[in-house]
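not sure who needs this but someone in the group chat was asking about Nitrogenase protein alpha chain from Desulfitobacterium chlororespirans DSM 11544 so here u go. i didnt clean anything up, its just raw.
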Amino acid sequence: MPYHLFKCSECIPEREKHAVIKGPGEDLSMALPLGYLNTIPGTISERGCAYCGAKHVIGTPMKDVIHISHGPVGCTYDTWQTKRYISDNDNFQIKYTFATDMKEKHIVFGAEDLLRKNIIEAFKAFPHIKRMTIYQTCASALIGDDINALANEIMEEMPEVDIFVCNSPGFGGPSQSGGHHKINIAWVNQKVGTVEPEITSDYVINYVGEYNIQGDQVVMGDYFKRMGIQVLSTFTGNGSYDELRAMHRAQLNVLECARSAEYICNELRVRYGIPRLDIDGFGFEPLSGSLRKIGLFFGIEERAKAIIEEETARWKPELDWYKARLQGKKVCLWPGGSKLWHWANVIHEEMGVEVVSVYTKFGHQGDMEKGISRCEEGALAIDDPNELEGLEAMEMLQPDVIFTGKRPGEVAKKVRVPYLNAHAYHNGPWKGYEGWVRFARDVYNAIYSPIHQLSMLDITKDEIPTDQGFVTKRMLSDANLSDEIKNSPVLREYTGKYDSLPDLEKKVYPEFPREKSLASAI
């Protein structure tokens, strides 16, 4: 295993052990970079802090809650919902963000009075919301404001409200993952077991580590409903505050994102004896295996099997259409924590792309182990890369597309590498069978985008093609593909609506006719 020291990091030689290239025949003992360590000074890390991990990732997807940060307004603005954690209560938690807006004078004289005033004002401004979470920041932690005591006082004065306090300042861990841990444990300690739920099914689960990005939770919830399973609570996407207080009455914890929420599952197992079952909602085979596991646990395997057969028959032909056109395309898989290994193998197997690099900003050694073990030889694995290292990696690897967050994604666009938002999605949801096809469509559109192709041209000397010159246009104009469209069982119903292929090209989304199947995503 050769460690890889980026040229831009030669002045920081400690960075060498944070990047490796997976060699032929190497096992994990030979191809594992260091991870989840304190950021090396001078590397200009792009990591999120522990406060961000608690508020932005875990806390604020709760839908019926006033989420207030006790600290400077910049902390709050930086964590104002950019991940599209949608909810069925008119997206209250996305529309509004609350902060005490601490100033220098509050650092000197204390800010508990300021917090009390803000709490009362927030409840008066939104009288229909009776639940609140308060997030500690570095500023309020350093001056020692006793947020828990103040919250208890207000709950005594206003018995109709309930307040959860998360003491997770930014310096509370090497990265945002430290905040995941703190809010998980705080929720178990403060709120679980304080509400008794109504049980309506013989099969009851908590859906844990699911944040309802563009409707992921709704997709998965539909599968559970069709299996006759009651989702007692979702931690925390589209999740209700009081439902999450009743997590102790579930029969099974179904865990999706192990990096952000395994802690609460482990605590619920120790304290209440609730078993944990890890699942995966991404990809046909992983999702099918997950539904089978849940069905096996409850003894309802036939219900799971019926869903798998129905959904696979409906969506697999479309996925295969994209796989044929994405075969061999190079991908840099640069997401957060668990998607590193949720996607590493399945996008290769089911979409045909080659994973040439994996990285994580806040993942632990276990995330790297699973991610590296599932990607191809020669892949570059990086822990906590900075912007310069990311640019150097793209220059070296020449990927066709990268899956990452918005900040490194915008950098990639500047060097003419298309990206898909691995955190908030482009046109999600991406979970479920239809969602996985939607993900493949987004990959296809990113790679074959005519606008992206134009960006590669030098207008001072290169010939500017007409729309007939683009790959996507040629695909539809090709005689063989025309026959394929006309003869495909999935597409035959669409082609019959038009007199000629040109009519089809004009009236239907040009890369792939799909008026009905994915109309909601167009």
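also Residues 301-326 form the longest helix (26 residues). if thats useful
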